[in-house]
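Encode chain A's predicted structure.
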Amino acid sequence: MFNDRMEAGKLLAMELKKIIGKNEQDIILAVPRGGVPVAYAVANVLNLPVEIVLTKKIGHPMNKEYAIGAVSLEDCFIIPHEDVSEEYVEEETRKIRSRLREMYQRFMGGKHPQNIQGKTVIVIDDGIATGNTLLATVRLLRKQNPQKIIVASPVASWSAVQKLKQEADEVVVLLVPQEFYGVGSFYRNFEQVDDEEVIYYLDKIRAPKKIS
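Encoded structure for chain A:
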């Protein structure tokens, strides 16, 4: 069990340090909101830049929980369904992308997302339950031709790890419990991360490093 996201991030950084070299082309992509404090702790150890990665699923019109695809800021992928019209997909994509842009503007301001082509990308979240959203994220990132995609998290279910191993180049998870009751059960302090906290950590990451 981890005390909080910061402790979990520091421990995760030590594990990541074993498998990645010092490369200025590496970049951390944090999953808001809970993944941002973890990514901040990792970035402090590995001295890597951090951005956020935003992906949302498109739900089936008859069952919004059943994903038929996913949308990012710049791309999407859709699993064709005979009972789902192109008009529905286009409208959902437009609405979702509009919300993602608002979210990106709130957290990153006018900064344009970095080009990840040829880079090693480390996608970080504070925990992985089903892995479905991260699976969609990896598939969308893959279309941007990064050199390598690493999914990293302090804790994940066994099924999520197996699922993600089929898509990511590497999956780094500190704790894979036999019984998974939810991410929060593996943290002593698992308070909800709000927008202000996300912005606080991102601002700290972007601040110039002081020379001692």
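Residues 86-108 form the longest helix (23 residues).
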